[in-house]
């Protein structure tokens, strides 16, 4: 079977649906978005991820038309949308608070946007029924928003914003108000709906797990700038900076001075009394250049005996164990005082595990386990 | 036991301060005028039996015979309805502006709305006489600006009464509407625009319906006192301004006909009971909706 991978961002001939071109947004003295350039392609599920105040919500509001651009321009399907008011943009938004109209029923909420388009009664009814079916709320059509649960309200908001078949759907922390279990189910539902409707989704979230689960690409933002844009896997495995590595998931950062030791291979002198660490890197580092080695805890093996084949191995003692049920994270203290986190899957029952607090252990990892970063 | 006491207190309050005075007024309205102190018969001194025997509906029949009274009621209703609408037209934009104002401004704006209450109502109405009279500030300003050559006659007309009522009762309109608008999530307005509404459509389809309760509450708070208003028409209105409050005053103090004055008051109360019941029902509905 020949399956084509959906990756228009790798295709130089693909034209993006949305183009941010050197966009800057200032509120008085405060710069919310700082000279930002970004392309988003049709049918993408694009996530804007970052801590609160990083500018992700501002970007979304500029796309919806609720904020104007201070400098630069935003294009939607080749057209500069700067002068287009929100009600004339082929963009709909699902609000964080859902913003359902409390005086209207579920049915009327979904029909609200369609009514503005001078559609016939028949067309409106057909479309509303279709939307109700999509989000499985046929039975609740006549209820008012305060008569349904939070999860149902979230689905009404989604149906309402999709009803007008927008070119682009903006989702502002769409799952923030739901509890964890419901959130996970809803994530998959969102992905299904995105796939069925073929709409381009841009989601704003501060929850990295959510972004990783739903998105085709993730943009990690900080202080109005984009730190990295890549697929979830690339962001996790090949972060381009310590900030991104640290923001997504758990990571060990080893700081030191690099010296070339072979083909795309470097030695990292990181602390006195310990052997230098060996790491492969595509990026080049000069002799003595400062470098950071980022290694995910699950890439570090932990054992009671010294492993024979490991490139990097060192001894330490178990300081702490974080038991998460399916996983355990061991905090291993090295003789120099540094703490390295190592994670293993708990494939055996707890009574059969041989490592406990204060035990002397060996930690080891391969040369390709980590990523070398210059900043 | 505790619950009974809790309910008893408001009931006692209503009984002493509302029901008892009302019964006294009702009793006087059923009596006859007399040259005596108090100026009506019968009184309790005549004994309960004689008192009840002598009560009749003569005064109420009199009210239907003289067309002054029902004309006054109708005219009061018209003035109250028109001034309520005018107050709404002036008050809504102010309340809207306050609700949309930056947070640091709100306390000041609220203060400005409430501030007039710190001066006597009577003095404020007198001040309007100074503003609206032929040689008043308003006419002087308009002549100085060259907009008019001869002073406008505003004082002692119905226009002056409307101005006075709108001015006096404006805070009662602004505050409930402001409370309703303040609670409104601003993202609702954005959602309406996002779904294709112009700003104007969003206002009519979302903001107005969602502030309905505030509008209703404010309108009743203006309409009810405006209907029985006496001070404003007698100070600002002219001989042509016919309002029931003024008629009542004249019956009471000029004619010293307490029984007819009381009958006028009882009918006025009956007219007011209808909007008050409607108002109560609106409040109740609002509370139910919030639960």
General description of the model:
- Chain A is of the alpha+beta class and 375 residues long.
- Chain A folds into 2 domains: 8-245, 3-Layer(aba) Sandwich (Rossmann fold); 250-373, Beta Barrel (OB fold (Dihydrolipoamide Acetyltransferase, E2P)), CATH 2.40.50.100.
- Chain A is 22% helix and 33% strand.
- A 6-stranded mixed beta sheet of chain A has the order 6-7-8-3-9-10, sandwiched between helices.
- In chain A, a hairpin with a 7-residue loop joins strand 12 (265-269) and strand 13 (277-280).
- The two termini of chain A are 42 Å apart.
- The model of chain A has no long low-confidence stretch (mean pLDDT 90).
- Helices cover 76% and strands 1% of the residues of chain B.
- Chain B has helices at residues 2-29, 48-54, 58-65, 67-100, 103-114, 121-132, 137-144, 158-182, 186-194, 199-210, 212-227, 231-236, 244-254, 258-290, and strands spanning 32-33, 40-41.
- Chain B has a two-stranded antiparallel ribbon.
- In chain B, a hairpin with a 6-residue loop joins strand 1 and strand 2 (40-41).
- Chain B is globular and about 75 Å long.
- The mean pLDDT of chain B is 89.
- The chains are: A alpha+beta (375), B mainly alpha (291).
- The A-B interface holds A 64-66, 85-88, 91-93, 95-97, 99, 101-103, 112-113, 116-117, 146, 160-161, 164 and B 185, 187-188, 190-198, 201, 205-206, 209-210, 289.
Query: What average pLDDT do the residues of chain A reach?
Result: 90
Distinct helical segment count of chain A: 8
Count of runs of 4 or more consecutive helical residues of chain B? 14
Q: Would you list the SSEs of chain B in sequence order as H and E?
A: HEEHHHHHHHHHHHHH
Radius of gyration based on Cα positions of chain A:
25 Å
Distance between the termini of chain B: 28 Å
What shape does the CA trace of chain B take? globular
Q: Unreliable segments of chain B (pLDDT under 50, ≥5 consecutive)?
A: none
CATH architectural grouping of the largest domain in chain A: 3-Layer(aba) Sandwich
The overall pLDDT average of chain B reads 89
- CATH superfamily heading of the largest domain in chain A: P-loop containing nucleotide triphosphate hydrolases
How many β-strand runs of chain B?
Answer: 2
Global structural class of chain B: mainly alpha
- The third-level CATH topology of the largest domain in chain A is Rossmann fold
């Amino acid at each position: 079977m020949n399956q084509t991978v959906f990756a228009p961002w790798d295709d130089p001939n693909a034209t993006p649906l949305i183009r941010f071109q050197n966009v800057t947004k200032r509120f008085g003295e405060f710069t919310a978005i700082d000279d930002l350039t970004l392309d988003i392609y049709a049918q993408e599920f694009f996530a804007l991820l970052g801590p609160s105040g990083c500018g992700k919500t501002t970007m979304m509001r500029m796309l919806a038309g609720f904020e104007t651009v201070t400098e630069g321009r935003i294009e939607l399907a080749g057209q500069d949308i700067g002068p287009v008011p929100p009600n004339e943009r082929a963009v709909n938004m699902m609000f964080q608070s859902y913003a359902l109209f409390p005086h209207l029923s579920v049915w009327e909420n979904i029909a609200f946007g369609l009514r503005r388009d001078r559609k016939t009664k028949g067309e409106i009814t057909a479309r509303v029924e279709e939307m109700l079916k999509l989000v499985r709320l046929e039975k609740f059509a006549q209820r008012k928003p305060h008569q349904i649960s939070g999860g149902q309200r979230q689905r009404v908001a989604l149906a309402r914003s999709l009803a007008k078949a927008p070119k682009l759907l903006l989702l502002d922390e769409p799952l923030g108000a739901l509890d964890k279990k419901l959130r996970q189910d809803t994530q998959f539902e969102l992905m299904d709906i995105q796939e069925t409707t073929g709409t381009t989704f841009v989601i704003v979230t501060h929850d990295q797990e959510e972004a990783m689960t739903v998105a085709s690409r993730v943009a990690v933002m900080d202080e109005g700038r984009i730190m990295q844009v890549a697929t979830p896997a690339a962001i996790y495995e090949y972060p381009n900076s310590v900030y991104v590595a640290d923001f997504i998931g758990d990571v060990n950062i080893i700081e030191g001075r690099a010296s070339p030791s072979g083909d795309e291979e470097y030695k990292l002198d990181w602390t006195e009394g310990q052997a230098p660490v060996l790491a492969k890197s595509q990026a080049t580092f000069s002799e003595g250049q400062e470098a950071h080695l980022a290694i995910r805890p699950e890439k570090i093996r932990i054992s009671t005996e010294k492993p024979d084949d490991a490139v990097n191995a060192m001894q330490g003692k178990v300081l702490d164990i974080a038991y998460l049920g399916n996983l355990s994270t061991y905090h291993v203290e090295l003789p120099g005082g540094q703490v390295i986190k190592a994670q293993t899957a708990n494939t055996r029952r707890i009574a059969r595990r041989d490592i406990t607090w204060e035990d002397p252990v060996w930690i080891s990892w391969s040369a390709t386990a980590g990523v070398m970063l210059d900043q | 036991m505790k619950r009974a006491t809790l309910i008893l207190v408001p009931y006692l309050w209503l009984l002493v301060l509302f029901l008892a005075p009302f019964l006294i007024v009702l009793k006087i309205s059923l009596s006859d005028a007399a040259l005596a102190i108090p100026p009506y018969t019968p009184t309790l001194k005549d004994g309960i039996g004689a008192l009840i025997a002598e009560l009749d509906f003569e005064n109420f029949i009199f009210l239907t015979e003289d067309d002054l009274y029902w004309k006054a009621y109708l005219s009061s209703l018209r003035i109250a309805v028109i001034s309520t609408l005018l107050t709404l037209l002036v008050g809504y934009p102010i309340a809207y502006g306050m609700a949309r104002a930056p947070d640091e401004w709100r306390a000041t704006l609220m203060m400005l709305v409430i501030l007039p209450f710190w001066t006597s109502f009577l003095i404020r109405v007198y001040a309007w006489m100074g503003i609206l009279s032929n040689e008043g500030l308003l006419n002087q300003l308009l002549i100085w600006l060259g907009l008019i050559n001869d002073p406008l006659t505003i004082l002692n007309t119905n226009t002056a009464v409307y101005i006075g009522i709108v001015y006096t009762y404006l805070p009662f309109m602004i505050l409930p509407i402001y409370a309703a608008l303040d609670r409104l999530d601003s993202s609702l307005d954005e959602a309406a625009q996002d779904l294709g509404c112009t700003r104007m459509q969003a206002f009519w389809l979302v903001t107005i319906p969602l502030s309905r309760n505030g509008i209703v509450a404010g309108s009743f708070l203006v309409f009810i006192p405006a209907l029985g208003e006496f001070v404003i028409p007698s100070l600002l209105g002219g001989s042509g301004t016919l309002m029931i409050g003024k008629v009542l005053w004249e019956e009471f103090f000029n004619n010293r006909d307490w029984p007819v004055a009381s009958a006028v008051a009882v009918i006025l109360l009956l007219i007011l009971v209808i909007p008050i019941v409607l108002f109560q029902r609106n409040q109740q509905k609002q509370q139910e909706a919030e639960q």
